């Protein structure tokens, strides 16, 4: 038996159409097998909440081994997993092709899928994460929606906590009346014909977050790409389904994948590259969808054509060179590497991109922000999410940098909430975190 594999991790297709996938006896047997390996290894003790819960369960059991842990107690381990993929992509030596064949996050996903099938899903969370419906509704009255979701609103937030389970302290994304896709129709952005990258064409997959909650990220991406000669079209068929994936609703994600990939394939056929604006969505398009629909030609084509925005800018820089005009930023950057950017196995592209800015002063932070998508805003999880993200918050706060940035906007906001709660003097007063592409736009003076 080898101690860890030296080969690159391989991920097997998700067998979600097989009835055994949802069989709790089989799931529990697999949990037992995997948990026992983790018990002997414990490398992931500080990655998230799942592993400490598991190891405490084992250590506090009668025998101090997994055999005296009740299977009913496995559920909190599963519930605490945010599917960040760090254990699989970064830490675990036993992932395939190793004979142990260990894929911890996808086993947590399987458990959730089985729970969903058994009717044990959290209905409030399902409603809360219908991002397209919620974005459209809130976008009709953004002032009211933003007033109601403000953390300091003592009228609405306790109500939201009671009815939907959203922790009253958790910062929630803002909404806008005009989506990114709508703004792009009339922003007059055209590609710079003198830039070395002229001739490239990109279909920007807007993502639900950028489209409804933070169009500025999309505008920055469009401006930076145009300055570099790239023609862009904004395409947004629907959300990538990451929130439904987190809940184990694989059938829904498959439906989404088919719809979005069919629409994006038309653009690929016209010679456009696909660029996703947030890493979780890029991860879905590149890696998770092909594991859910391995035979689907559009899904395969989309996976091969998709880049993360920072990855794409670095690609221009390496192949054609970036357009002139970058000026130093007025201060350094504490750059959080989002888990789903790291899970794409592409290297630290956001850092690489920002280092093209003259006199770049970047501190890379590779610890989890703790947010974990919808997980971190729920009551019962928010305090844990702050605890998981404390190291990233502390590193950001003590970095002395002017900007706090993350490719994951939810992570950036969560780090700022973590900083507010740190017991330290001279905490930086930074109101908003930035997406690295916003800093790039700033460095270009766009
Ligand atoms: S995927 Fe992330 S949250 Fe889930 S067990 Fe692994 S490290 Fe923890
Ligand atoms: S997931 Fe892998 S690295 Fe992490 S504790 Fe389990 S066996 Fe060890």
Overview of this protein structure:
With 446 residues, the protein is an alpha/beta fold. It folds into four domains: 19-117; 123-164, no CATH class; 180-319; 333-443. Helices cover 48% and strands 7% of the residues. The chain contains 23 helices and seven strands. The chain has a four-stranded parallel sheet with strand order 2-1-3-4, with helices on both faces. Strands 6-5-7 form a three-stranded parallel sheet. Helix 15 (279-292) runs antiparallel to helix 16 (297-305) and helix 21 crosses helix 22 (409-420). The model has no long low-confidence stretch (mean pLDDT 93). The chain binds iron/sulfur cluster (2 copies). Residues 37-38, 41-44, 87, 91-92, 94, 102, 104 line the site of one iron/sulfur cluster (SF4).
Provide a concise account of the structure shown.
The protein has 446 residues and is α/β, with parallel strands linked by helices. The protein has helices at residues 24-41, 50-59, 75-79, 86-91, 104-117, 123-128, 131-140, 142-149, 157-164, 180-185, 208-213, 215-227, 242-246, 250-269, 279-292, 297-305, 309-319, 339-342, 349-354, 382-388, 390-398, 409-420, 436-443, and strands spanning 201-205, 231-235, 273-276, 306-308, 333-336, 362-365, 403-406. Residues 37-38, 41-44, 87, 91-92, 94, 102, 104 line the site of one iron/sulfur cluster.
């Amino acid at each position: 038996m080898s101690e860890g594999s030296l080969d690159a991790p391989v991920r097997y297709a998700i067998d979600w159409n097989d009835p055994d996938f949802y069989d709790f006896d089989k799931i529990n047997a697999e949990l037992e097998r995997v948990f026992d390996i983790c018990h002997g290894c414990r490398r992931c003790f500080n990655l998230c909440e799942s592993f400490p819960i598991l190891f405490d369960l084992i250590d506090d059991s009668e025998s101090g081994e997994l055999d005296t842990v009740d299977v009913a107690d496995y559920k909190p381990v599963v519930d605490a997993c945010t599917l960040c993929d760090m254990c699989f992509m970064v830490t675990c030596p036993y992932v395939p092709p190793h004979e142990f064949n260990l894929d911890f996050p996808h086993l947590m996903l399987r458990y959730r899928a089985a729970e969903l099938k058994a009717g044990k899903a959290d209905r409030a969370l399902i409603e809360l994460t219908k991002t397209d419906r919620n974005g459209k509704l809130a976008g009709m009255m953004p002032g009211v929606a933003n007033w109601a979701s403000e953390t300091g609103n003592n009228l609405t937030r306790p109500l939201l906590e009671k009815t939907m389970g959203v922790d009253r302290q958790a910062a929630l994304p803002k909404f806008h009346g005009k989506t990114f896709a709508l703004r792009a129709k009339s922003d007059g952005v055209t590609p710079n014909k003198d830039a070395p990258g002229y001739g490239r064409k990109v279909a920007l997959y807007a993502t639900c977050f950028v489209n409804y909650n933070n169009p500025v990220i999309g505008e920055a991406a469009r401006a930076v790409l145009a300055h570099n000669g790239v023609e862009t079209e904004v395409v947004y068929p629907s959300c990538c389904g990451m929130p439904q994936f987190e809940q184990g609703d694989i059938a829904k994600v498959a439906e989404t994948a088919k719809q979005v990939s069919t629409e994006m394939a038309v653009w690929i056929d016209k010679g456009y590259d696909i660029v996703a604006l947030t890493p979780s969505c890029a991860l879905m398009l590149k890696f998770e969808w092909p594991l859910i629909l391995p035979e689907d030609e559009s899904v395969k084509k989309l996976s091969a054509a998709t880049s993360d925005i920072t990855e794409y800018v670095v690609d221009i820089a390496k192949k054609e060179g970036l357009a002139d005009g970058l000026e130093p930023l007025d201060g350094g950057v504490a750059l959080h590497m989002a888990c789903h950017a790291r899970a794409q196995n592409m290297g630290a592209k956001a850092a690489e991109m920002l280092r093209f800015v003259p006199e770049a002063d970047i501190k890379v932070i590779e610890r989890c922000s703790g947010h974990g998508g919808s997980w971190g805003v729920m009551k019962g999880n928010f305090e844990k999410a702050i605890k998981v993200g404390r190291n990233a918050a502390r590193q950001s706060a003590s970095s002395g940098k002017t900007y706090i940035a993350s490719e994951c906007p939810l992570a950036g906001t969560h780090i700022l909430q973590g900083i507010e709660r740190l017991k330290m003097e001279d905490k930086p007063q930074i109101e908003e975190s930035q997406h690295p592409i916003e800093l790039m736009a700033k460095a270009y003076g766009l």
